[in-house]
Hints:
Elements: H1 30-43, E1 47-51, H2 54-62, E2 70-74, H3 79-88, E3 92-96, H4 101-107, E4 112-118, H5 130-139, E5 143-147, H6 152-155, E6 165-169, E7 183-187, H7 190-203, H8 209-219, H9 222-241, E8 246-250, H10 260-266, E9 274-279, H11 282-292, E10 297-298, E11 308-310, E12 331-335, H12 341-352
Parallel strand pairs: 2-3, 2-4, 4-5, 5-6, 10-11
Antiparallel strand pairs: 1-7, 6-7, 8-9, 9-12, 11-12
Helix pairs in contact: 1-8, 2-3, 9-12
Amino acid sequence: MTTPIYQTSTFAHDGLGGDRGYSYARVSNPTRTALETCLASLEGAAHGLAFASGMAAVDTVVRQLDPGDHILVNADGYGGTHRLLTQVHQASFSPVDLADLDAVAAAWTDRTRLLWVESPTNPGLGVVDIAALAAMARERGAWCAVDNTFATPWLQRPLELGAHLVVHSTSKYLGGHSDVIGGFVATDDDALAAALTLVRNAAGSVPGPFDTFLVLRGVKTLAVRMDRHCSNALAVAAFLRSHPAMAQVRYPGLADDPGHALAARQMHGGFGGMVACVLHGGEEAAAAFVARTRLFTLGESLGGVESLIGYPARMSHASLAGTPLAADPGLVRLSVGIEDVDDLLEDLAQALG
């Protein structure tokens, strides 16, 4: 009923030559195989690769490009991805509003090889048309990769919308308990899967068997957790929108959210557990708000059973300070957990005063 933890670095060989099966745990491990099979099936993918972290997964995808290749990314996107592109790879990339297809077309170059998509975006909770973007990439001979961490395969399956690659930080909703770091890539492309596997093995960016076991354990409750995350997040978003301290609240589940209609078409069964809000009063008001919550814990990351509150300008997007990609200084990001919803609303009410 539970996958064993194969806590071994090496395996006995039956002999030389032929199919050796498992040989060395950096190459493959039965616990990791079980996780990869599980998550690939959830995404409807032919291939799945587990990684030591979400950023290791992103890095391995980026390493498929040649020097000088160009990338298009969400202008409102995860700060860690932007940091990897600028400070590590020094890649040629353009941040663009991916919700504006004309802007995407205008930013496209003859060296654009990768369209990196988040939907909903981190931290602004924007929604983009994955199917349209994937079609644009295919028409132009580029790859479309979708970071599906916020939505999970329970709510959204980008390969079905035409994407080439789906990427996850399994540290978040797939693991679900804030006790593991991991990443994952799914694809239907045989050649691309082989190339990703080569880089992962050569660079050694593999998760350990206990980490893969933890993610497998978390996935068992993904459906019930996501249902509760979604219902709680909708209640939190509706409460915040009614509060006079708020200048803006972004949650695709709100009927008047700019991304609601599109999200309703490409997401199924809910709109996720993440909420973004911008306070009147900017940085000072936002910093005071996150300091006063009690049940919402001030902390990095997201997607656990417990509720977290974050201030992206100084936390997840701090590396982008002073650049055009810096987070809105008035923006607060909430990862709404599965606690009693009345307790969550009471905590937010007392924190806002």
